[in-house]
Structures are given as C-alpha cells and as structure tokens.
Design brief:
Elements lengths: L15 H5 L5 E6 L4 E7 L8 E8 L1 H22 L21
Length: about 100
C-alpha cells in the first residue's frame, strides 16, 4: 500500500431481524431535487390493498451509485445463470397462477 493511500474500512453490523430481509415484488421510486424515495411493496394475489413494507431515502449521488451497483450485479448474475426474463409490461397482481376456488 502506498503511503498516501488510506485504508477505509467500515464496521457494519447486521442484526438478526434485519438479516431476515423483507420480501418485495414491487418498488415505486419517486424523487425531489434533493432525494430519491424507494418504497418496497409486497403484492399478494386476491388482496386489493398492498402495504409499503420498507421505505429507503437516498441522496441523488447514492441513488446513482446504487443503480450502477445493481446493473453490475445483474450482469454478473446473468453471466452465471443466463438472461433474466424481462417482465416489464406486466403487473404482478394475479401471479399468473390458477384462480383459487373453495
């Protein structure tokens, strides 16, 4: 390591509750001049109302870094697992399965 390089390490703690994660199958992104807001939502079949499960606030600079990191990881994933099918024109309301009957 060169003399003028500084080792920048961050000690990150991940508690059990956060480590479990929150499932989301829809994200809604809005922004103002100073921040991006990403709402993660879980839609369930047959339920007309969905709740925001998590909201993340980002600076524009961090939102751009996140977008680049996601693109990089998607490219790495596709190199190993094949192309991800793009379902851009669909909205996951019925989940594509059969209609439930009692």
């Amino acid at each position: 390591m060169e003399e003028n390089q500084v080792n920048h390490q961050i000690d990150i703690e991940l508690n059990e509750e956060v480590a479990e994660g929150i499932y989301s199958n829809l994200a809604i992104i809005t922004h103002s001049q100073s921040e991006f807001v990403v709402d993660f939502i879980k839609l369930m079949p047959g339920v007309p109302k969905a709740k925001v499960k998590s909201r993340i606030l980002l600076t524009p600079q961090h939102a751009k870094r996140l977008a680049k990191a996601l693109l990089d990881n998607i490219q790495k994933f596709e190199q190993v697992n094949g192309k991800i099918k793009d379902l851009e024109n669909t909205f996951p309301i019925n989940f594509g399965g059969p209609t439930a009957q009692a």
